[in-house]
Specification:
CATH superfamily: Nucleic acid-binding proteins
Structural class: mainly beta
Largest sheet: 5 strands, mixed, barrel
Strand content: over 45%
Shape: flat
CATH class: Mainly Beta
Number of helices: 1
Number of strands: 8
Number of domains: 1
CATH topology: OB fold (Dihydrolipoamide Acetyltransferase, E2P)
Strand order of the largest sheet: 1-3-6-8-7
């Protein structure tokens, strides 16, 4: 698996789904890509959509903290997933997030530490 770092904006509010006994928070991050040519930034015609999954505490924290349009940074391992019936199977790249946070180049944030059960 390849480690990726992606910056962009959330395309929608995080979606929490259950897979067995595990809750997974799913995100779509829209990244405006481009390149420098002759010293000028040229944006690509279409943005890139990244599908991101966060599990356990990270997923829970993302679900209550981030919302559609928020500027984020995602670091995680990228892999290919498939879904759908055999005759209509689709494939896509998914990032299993190790870290997700607000992009402080484009937003401000207030940090609140989690309180562990044994600290209450």
């Amino acid at each position: 698996m390849t480690t990726r770092t992606v910056t962009g904006n959330l395309a929608a509010d995080p979606e929490v789904v259950t897979a067995g006994t595990i809750q997974i928070t799913k995100l779509r991050v829209i990244e405006n890509t481009g390149e420098y040519r002759s010293g000028k930034w040229l944006a690509h015609d279409a943005a890139t959509t990244h599908f991101v999954q966060a599990k356990f505490e990270l997923g829970q924290n993302v679900a209550v903290t981030l919302h559609k349009g928020d500027a984020v940074i995602v670091v995680g391992r990228e892999h290919t997933e498939s879904w759908g019936d055999d005759d209509a199977r689709q494939y896509g790249r998914v990032i299993d997030a190790d870290n997700i946070g607000p992009d402080l180049n484009r937003a401000i944030a207030r940090v609140q530490r989690n309180v562990k059960a044994d600290e209450e």
